[in-house]
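Re: the pair you flagged

First of the two:
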Amino acid sequence: MNRKRFLYAMGVAPFAATLRLSAAGPAIQVFKTPSCGCCGGWVQHLKANGFQVTVNDVQDTAPVRKKYGVPDAMQSCHTAMVEGYAIEGHVPAADIQRLLKEKPKAKGLAAPGMPATSPGMDMEHGDAWDVMMFDAAGKATVYKHYAAK
């Protein structure tokens, strides 16, 4: 290797590594039961959309929901935490990214139940459903509406 190439490689490589690290998406911790296939589908959806996912298999997600303040009416099959927000159920990555960009005063987002056409469920047809934003008091408002397919 000639000197010019060597110096270029030594100067650019650390900078390129820094760019790769800063381009990594948000870190999200997912709590799910080991046997839940749709939860695994949602995890893959998050990874495909740039999230850095850590999966925690738990026997029961109810204590996790309670710990992070997810209202009972918002419950689904898995709970996640990202930048201080609770994410309950099959919330699309785009809605989580919007939440992180806007940073509203909220406890988190939820896709109550298991909407058929949500990420991880991936059914071709299903009823309309909503992603709900909820606060610490449990009050929820529609964050994003998804039409029936």
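Second of the two:
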Amino acid sequence: MLEECKEVNVEIYVGNLPFSAQENDLMDLFSNHGSVRQAKVIIDRESGRSKGFAFVSMDNADEAKAAIEAINGHEMDRRNLVVNEARERTNNRGPRQGGGDRGGYNRGGNNDGGRGGYNSRR
């Protein structure tokens, strides 16, 4: 009896990407090593330019591993690609939380040791 084939989605991070690289360039490069589901170059919202990294999705873990090993360090437009399995995103920015003195008037350069407040140099 054949084992049930599970569809696997392996996300691969591609860094140090030339800003000229397009998604179809990555599809072509990675498809030499297996089936590629998607390639996504990350674009800066403000400038509309590439941020210099991308993610590639592959369906087979063995093919993804082979692609990572083969393409990591590969030169593209005089840049050596950094390729590894993508890690889950962690939110390092988090919401701002209290703790620090941000309020008060006339704080600039008053050397008051961070006490702040209106006219704290009395």
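Residues 38 and 57 are 5 Å apart (CA to CA).

-B.
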